[in-house]
Amino acid sequence: MSDTIEDGTFVELNYKVVDDKTGDVLVTVDYPLGYVHGVNDVMSEEVTKFLYGKKVGDVIDVPIDTTQLYGERDESLVFTDRIENVPEEYREIGMTITMENEKGEPRNFIVTRFDDKTLTVDGNNPLCGREVTFMLEVLSIREATEEEIELGGAVGADPELNEILERA
User: Fold this and answer.
1) Nearest Cα to 71, choosing from 140, 16, 125, 27?
2) Start-to-end CA span in the chain (Å)
3) 3-class DSSP assignment, residue 20
4) Residue 134: which H helix or E strand, with range?
5) Is-contact 59 135, C-beta < 8 A?
6) pLDDT computed for residue 152 by the predictor
7) CATH architecture of 9-69+128-165
8) Nearest CA to 139 among 22, 9, 46?
9) What average pLDDT does this structure show over 7-28?
10) What is the residue extent of each domain of the chain?
11) What is the spatial distance between Cα 18 and Cα 161, in angstroms, rounded to a whole number?
């Protein structure tokens, strides 16, 4: 059994994403992320390469180039509308609103601010344009089962967690 991270090992991590400028924690998890290293692309190659050879208890900081992951910030994806044009259920900071473009392709917009007169949504990834560090703590390492290798992660894992990390 390997005590270091290598391809085919099942790894559990805690992680958080920290804004380099402010020190604010932008993203964190409430429970560990489990995946099969070298099989699941839940994290970018940029992050997983730093994990090779790490052991339980190791904590690593990985600077992330958000421009490479998400592209340049696009101000044309920021919209402000009169508050009366927005249904009340969307009047909450952080609320995600899915809209379609002319081609019918969906895109998520996040409510970034509102007041008595206007509401603003932003279609850029929330990490876009920021300098961030991905802080990872290795919690456990073990040989992955055949079923885990086939799935790329824990059997019965919550798929929504994977969506969070798709491009982190």
Assistant:
1) 125
2) 29
3) coil
4) strand 131-143
5) yes
6) 74
7) Roll (3.10)
8) 9
9) 92
10) 9-69+128-165, 74-122
11) 18
- How far is the C-alpha of 168 from the C-alpha of 70, rounded, in Å? 9
Residue 165 has pLDDT above 60, yes or no: no
Instruction: State in words which class domain 74-122 has.
Output: mainly beta
pTM of the model as a whole: 0.68
What mean pLDDT is reported for the chain?
Answer: 86
In the numeric block, which tokens belong to residue 63?
Answer: 């600077």
Closest by alpha carbon to 57, among 140, 135, 1? 140
Length of the chain: 168
Q: What is the pLDDT of residues 53-86, one digit of tens each?
A: 999 999 999 998 888 888 899 999 999 999 999 9
Residue pair 60/67 in contact by the 8 Å Cβ criterion: no
User: Do 9-69+128-165 and 74-122 come out as alike in CATH topology?
Assistant: no
> In this structure, what token pair is assigned to residue 51?
């994990």
Q: Which amino acid is at 39?
A: V
Residue given tokens 């949504």 in the structure block = 121
